Amino acid sequence: MDETSDFQVALGLRQITMVIPPHSSKVKTAFSFPPEPLSAGRLSLSHLLKLVGKWSGWLLRNHWYLMAFPVTRLRRLRRTDQLRNLVRETRLTPDAFVYPMFVCRGEGVRKEVRSMPGVFNLSVDEAVKEAREVHSLGVPSVILFGLPDKKDEVATGAWADDGIVQQAARAIKSDVPDLILMGDVCLCEYMSHGHCGIVKSSSTPMSLGAAARDALSARRGVAVKRVKNEEEKLKVIDELASIVASVVESKFEIDNDASLELLARTSVSLTRAGIDIIAPSDMMDGRVAAIRRALDEAGFSNTPILSYAAKFASGFYGPFREAADSTPQFGDRRSYQMDGANLREAMREIELDVEEGADMIMVKPAMPYLDVIAAARDRFDLPLAAYQVSGEYAMIEAAARNGWIERDRVMMESLQSIRRAGASIVLTYYAKEAARLLA
Question: What is the average per-residue pLDDT within 298-306?
Answer without folding.
Answer: 98
